[in-house]
Amino acid sequence: MNSLELLKLLESVQAGKLTPAKAIERLKHLPFEDLDFAKVDHHRTLRQGFAEVIFGKGKTPEQIAKIVRAMLAKKDSRHNILITRTDAKTFSAVKRVAGKESRLAKFHALSGVITIERSKEISGKGTILVVSAGTSDIPVAEEAVLTARMMGNSVEQLYDVGVAGIHRLLEHRSELTEARVIICVAGMEGALPSVVGGLVGIPVIAVPTSTGYGASFGGVAALLGMLNSCASNVTVVNIDNGFGAACVASCINRL
Amino acid sequence: MNSLELLKLLESVQAGKLTPAKAIERLKHLPFEDLDFAKVDHHRTLRQGFAEVIFGKGKTPEQIAKIVRAMLAKKDSRHNILITRTDAKTFSAVKRVAGKESRLAKFHALSGVITIERSKEISGKGTILVVSAGTSDIPVAEEAVLTARMMGNSVEQLYDVGVAGIHRLLEHRSELTEARVIICVAGMEGALPSVVGGLVGIPVIAVPTSTGYGASFGGVAALLGMLNSCASNVTVVNIDNGFGAACVASCINRL
Amino acid sequence: MNSLELLKLLESVQAGKLTPAKAIERLKHLPFEDLDFAKVDHHRTLRQGFAEVIFGKGKTPEQIAKIVRAMLAKKDSRHNILITRTDAKTFSAVKRVAGKESRLAKFHALSGVITIERSKEISGKGTILVVSAGTSDIPVAEEAVLTARMMGNSVEQLYDVGVAGIHRLLEHRSELTEARVIICVAGMEGALPSVVGGLVGIPVIAVPTSTGYGASFGGVAALLGMLNSCASNVTVVNIDNGFGAACVASCINRL
Amino acid sequence: MNSLELLKLLESVQAGKLTPAKAIERLKHLPFEDLDFAKVDHHRTLRQGFAEVIFGKGKTPEQIAKIVRAMLAKKDSRHNILITRTDAKTFSAVKRVAGKESRLAKFHALSGVITIERSKEISGKGTILVVSAGTSDIPVAEEAVLTARMMGNSVEQLYDVGVAGIHRLLEHRSELTEARVIICVAGMEGALPSVVGGLVGIPVIAVPTSTGYGASFGGVAALLGMLNSCASNVTVVNIDNGFGAACVASCINRL
Amino acid sequence: MNSLELLKLLESVQAGKLTPAKAIERLKHLPFEDLDFAKVDHHRTLRQGFAEVIFGKGKTPEQIAKIVRAMLAKKDSRHNILITRTDAKTFSAVKRVAGKESRLAKFHALSGVITIERSKEISGKGTILVVSAGTSDIPVAEEAVLTARMMGNSVEQLYDVGVAGIHRLLEHRSELTEARVIICVAGMEGALPSVVGGLVGIPVIAVPTSTGYGASFGGVAALLGMLNSCASNVTVVNIDNGFGAACVASCINRL
Amino acid sequence: MNSLELLKLLESVQAGKLTPAKAIERLKHLPFEDLDFAKVDHHRTLRQGFAEVIFGKGKTPEQIAKIVRAMLAKKDSRHNILITRTDAKTFSAVKRVAGKESRLAKFHALSGVITIERSKEISGKGTILVVSAGTSDIPVAEEAVLTARMMGNSVEQLYDVGVAGIHRLLEHRSELTEARVIICVAGMEGALPSVVGGLVGIPVIAVPTSTGYGASFGGVAALLGMLNSCASNVTVVNIDNGFGAACVASCINRL
Amino acid sequence: MNSLELLKLLESVQAGKLTPAKAIERLKHLPFEDLDFAKVDHHRTLRQGFAEVIFGKGKTPEQIAKIVRAMLAKKDSRHNILITRTDAKTFSAVKRVAGKESRLAKFHALSGVITIERSKEISGKGTILVVSAGTSDIPVAEEAVLTARMMGNSVEQLYDVGVAGIHRLLEHRSELTEARVIICVAGMEGALPSVVGGLVGIPVIAVPTSTGYGASFGGVAALLGMLNSCASNVTVVNIDNGFGAACVASCINRL
Amino acid sequence: MNSLELLKLLESVQAGKLTPAKAIERLKHLPFEDLDFAKVDHHRTLRQGFAEVIFGKGKTPEQIAKIVRAMLAKKDSRHNILITRTDAKTFSAVKRVAGKESRLAKFHALSGVITIERSKEISGKGTILVVSAGTSDIPVAEEAVLTARMMGNSVEQLYDVGVAGIHRLLEHRSELTEARVIICVAGMEGALPSVVGGLVGIPVIAVPTSTGYGASFGGVAALLGMLNSCASNVTVVNIDNGFGAACVASCINRL
């Protein structure tokens, strides 16, 4: 509609009803979003190839189901759909609204993630390797794995390679060096990214987890450890933010 | 220059060289700031009547003098000039560049503020009252007083009325109720804004100071006290931010 | 009764039974609130036009119902009644005691607020605009909206305009500039007030929310972000304190 | 028994079987508690007249009932019994074991305290006044009141006198000045002890409460406020520690 | 002057020029401090017998000397004068203005305290014992000792009795039990007050010091230790606040 | 399989098909874990004689039972099995899979530990003494006791010897001096290790517990107290980490 | 030497003096670093093309000069040399040892960086854009710019585009979208990366700076803001770590 | 003297002047330290073989020199003397008083330690290995090395083996496994003890250092990392406490 308004203005100029100088004045008072901004978002989607994402926490099963239905209703999109931090009850609600695509829907109980994988196209250039330290870091690691996969990446995983048993990590040196981006998930002292970062020359996205007790302070110890990493190819995302790490890794992997 | 570019585009439309539809296309690719955004800043200045402000911390005397010279060189502006968090050495440098306006320049040693008061016009509607608790809160209070004054407000001050001698504060009830906005500066336990807030029905801007020692943690105790104020007309700015409190108070006082 | 006591004392003076000097002595030992203080509170209510407010947290449905009944029993008051941080169960209890005014009672589930809107009179001079960043900030925003409305203000709202999609905010520039006071509700990094503050010349009350996870530390990240805002017209209230922000905004809007 | 052992040793000396020098040697190897230490505790009880106290948190009803039974079984003691941080279920268990003293047992639901008041003797010299700020501070205040009473003090209380309505506090100036020790309970910004401390010349024991939300951080804001009090007769105990405040006040009141 | 004003009002009543009812009206508009409040402060001084105190930190030698001169100029006062957190340079300035009383002035370098002891009268009822843990706690302990002495107390001291050499403390059990109030100064883990509190039945004022390094966090470790003391007769003042501890102890010692 | 690969390489050398120099080249590209690393872990187990340990938190009863069955299935091992941070439900599941060894399985409800003590062999050289302060520290102390015992140590325990009743600790001086390593468990102010450390000349492993409330901050106060211990033979493990303390103590006791 | 040892072993196999099986046994006891590890570091350098870097903080001018001389002495390397966190005095020392390359040495006073740019070869694939918020963030931004340049990247910079003047940032939308990686440097509330991240589809490395005062807590406010960014393509490095951000950006830019 | 007093008492018993029963009474009132406690300290020194230690921080050169002179004056002691956290000026003062032993005095500038090594006797049973991560950790490591040596231990050191270059550590596996106790010094993320702890079966004493910047928070990041170590043979001492780590290691090494 705003383009319409602009069109009229320009037609007035064309018709000589409005001088260019006056048109400039009036243009300045048009809300600028009418010109150009809707496009921004569109471009962004094109560029990132992001899956459609719903952050489930704090939303009811009904709310989520409704959003999913709307997403599936878009005719021209075959984007994968990813719902994070959700539960089995929501999965049932999603299945009910998913129609014939309900068979593509899967619930991953460990990480509380629902995926509707409508496209298996790989658009990332290399492999994203998700490395995690202890068994209790696996839910966050799985969130990262699923997110990266839904966003069109080839993903490998390497679990239970904590630094107190350094040889288990070293046994997998080849996987480390074959990856294009590494996501490194660790709780407790958060030392794994430093060791991994020292073994490779590629970017390492560190995810602290809230694993641990006492002075782990819900992941703060790991977070600080990672921010102070002595390896210079390590960056950090928020505690338990497997999703965010995968977004960044996916960004990098498309470059 | 961009307006020029736009003018040319519109003249092409006027001249029939460019259809309105194509003009829209090209308009979308113009950087939008060319249309409208410079105005934003301009409007803002008009609306706020803000003095010209230099945050002195981290700038050399020479850098500050240079900025002042540029400000004074603007022909059509008689804005007051305010330099916060600075020192006597900078004051000398400022005096040297200030030319005939150097006699208006003053250095306020307690708060480390330099003022060049070129206009005494009062644009705020009522009085801003700056209340402070202890003698060591005075530097921050003075920064607030000078800032509010430079921004065109009538300012009163009420010092040394800490809550442990509540009668000193109560003796000044009339000043409190006659103000339009109150800035309340306090360190240590930061209790003053709660008491003041309870005595009046106008907005109270609380400024925690880094006054105190030990568990005052450089003003954190006062900050938390103020954020948790049981008086519902209290808002808070950053520790020692007398300048910020005066900006907000000035905003309110123009409404 | 105390006025009575004072009256007697003065009558003794009048009757010559007590010298003025002795009367002074005795006056000094009267509790001073007998003279003047009850008035304070009264004045304050007049000046602020505050709705009657009950902070529901930690009170049983029965306790709240009892307070409401007492409020409604006051013959000469048509104040709106506002109950914050409460629930549906309390709403039933309130309905039961509200008599013929029960049809005015409403429960707002999202924010846990009960309103009994007995007067629609607008006493605030302009519009209070409540802006919020993400969907999970809405409960706090709604508490602010309802509080401001109950206190006699015209209120507008603008939701879901987070800084990572800056164009959505910019599309609403006109609403921003038309408001008289802005309440800005945001969790996570708490960046919205800085951007909003930079776009307008009016006071912005920032409310950090406990939205987020990990290193958001229950709203501390947003709180710190807001306290350190680079926009100088921003002040801050406590985490999740939508009510307090609306009180301050209402104070300002009456000036 | 140890005294016995010592007696034997001394009898050996008396009997000439052991030289004094050798006795010294052997004395040095006796565990010294045999000589003197049991007395310490005894003395302490005599001196303090402490009620018998059970910290209920983390103990089962059965464990508490068992301890109470043992206390009541002591023939020569008429000490009051105080159980803090407990619940109604424990109260039933205590009643069952209390025999004929069960009619003295009372459960105070607000503070979760059980009292068995076997003696009404007042051993404190003056009155302990418990002052509290908001309604949600009352549970902690009540714990203080009951503890002080069980320890043989005359106790008065003054509730709901927060600093944002300073006149309510000032109306009670006479109660404040008539007390011998004041316990001051407050959450949120913890400003009450500063104001109270400034009005009196007696010791003020400040108790921060975990009342509040957001940046009150479970009582930390109030705690810091109190530690930084600008009144010099204020000391502080742990958050929510009404019991501890009453112990100290009772200590002082016996001096 | 205000009493004068009041006197006139009452004389008008006496003279029949003003009815008692009208007098009440006019009384309500008198600033109430005119009636009664100056007395408050006066009473407080009488009751507390406090020495005159100057908090030296943040004041120049000249400012302090000026205040001292004013104090000495008061004809009818023989109060001791105490200046805390000051230095040798200030001491010289004070000596210069002290006239014939300059021989009473002493500088205590360890604690940075200046005393002008004009009266040796003891008004406290018992002995205040200042106990400290390590050699680096002595400055704070000395501040407490001097403050308590200037306020008219008999003071004893017991230094270097840290808990890691528990026998050194136990050797002085008699001093502990003979005191009326104990001030307990300790840095590092702040454990001393718990042990001392367990050995006596009198109030123990704990002063954390900023002694230590690393995870002592400038006294926070000691502060937390003391707040969590398992001895129930311990209260706490701010870090390094020897002055405050002595004020409270002095308050108690006058009871 | 890798050994196989290596064998082939060496056979090629032996057969003269590969020169030693070329073999070195190829060896460098073999993943080194193929050579040697599995052994590392094996050595470590031999050296430490550690029991088999399962950290129960976050694992389902079924998962734990499955791990236990696998452990019991190892023919040549008679290691004790220790499951920490678990519950009665898991104990039932473990019993079901334990077969004839189920009679050795015990559930320790206080600490939530399951033990299957298959060997009573003592391999530690001296006694590990576990000392604890309050009754609420006992669960953590018990975890330490059971862990140390399962790892083949002679263990003694000394409970309820908090520093506020120092004589109770001193009565047990002989137990303290007879131990080879001491584990010291304490919450609240965490002062016990300092006192114990001062009484002995052996290593003291301090375990802070999350016992307490308010400013104990879930064990942080105790943790800081212990880190700042003035006794120089004290080291610290994480909050509530009775298991870790026993591991270290066991390490030391084997030296 | 170890290769020698290995060679002998293999020669023994070749000579038939050692069976392959026995050789395996002996190989297992060789320290594995003899085989392969030196190579690791070498590979890493090759892969990363990192400049030679010296972290200057805590090193004397002499120490740094010595390291530089050693670097320059390596015949076959033309690596750039980068010294961070250093000063003018060190620069003189470096110049003295740099011989004919001293003319390539430059000191960047703002960021305290010394560069010796021996190669201008660009190995990064795209442009790294360094965006910063305020003038006081420039030192950190410059450290990032210089590091990225020394590591062979094409670098652009965009300064003074804080979020409170959002239009200044929006004016440079094209630079943002043309970059391959963005480094975003901001202090205070750290909001810039969220806004920038929302405008682009490429990775954004956020660097919090210690700019600000009061509740900025030396960069903690900015750090938390960035960790909680609502833009999903943002990762974070340590406070003031311009160097680290550039390392990661360089890593990414080589992919 | 007290023994004398006791002797007299016993002689009175022997002489029949005092009955054993009365003697017991009188014994109870003797300060118990007279019996036994001096011995405690003596025993402790014997048992620990500790060097004489002076904590230099906060002491003047003169004070330290005086203490050293007193130590050297003890005829029957050949203990080593260790002064930590001191400087070159103090060293001169110490040399002056050391007489003929001055040639044994050495100043270690890196760690600010003075040693007077009067005895080279080795009383520790094995080797203490001090491992450190970065070059800036060396001062703390050196303090540990010198302390351990002065206390009669054989000490080895292994510097610059940070976890980001894991192979440098692994190259020294044999040193690690040959030690009896390991002290592990690391700043930044504090990950080294976890890796080291996983490679050995002996106790690892972790020392966090205040190395680093930004979110290292003066060693807190490293401290938390170490407390949360996933290796179960790691304990922790205070930040920068190389001395304390060596004391504990020495304790263990004597077992």
Description:
The structure is a homooctamer of 255-residue chains. Chain A is globular, with a radius of gyration of 23 Å. In chain A, the strands form two sheets. A five-stranded parallel sheet of chain A has the order 6-5-7-8-9, sandwiched between helices. Chain A has a four-stranded mixed sheet with strand order 1-2-4-3, with helices on both faces. Chain A is of the alpha/beta class. The longest helix of chain A is centred in the first third of the chain and has 13 residues, at 2-14. In chain A, helix 4 packs parallel to helix 5 (88-97) and helix 6 (138-150) packs parallel to helix 11. Helix content of chain A is 44%, strand content 16%. Chain A contains eleven helices and nine strands.
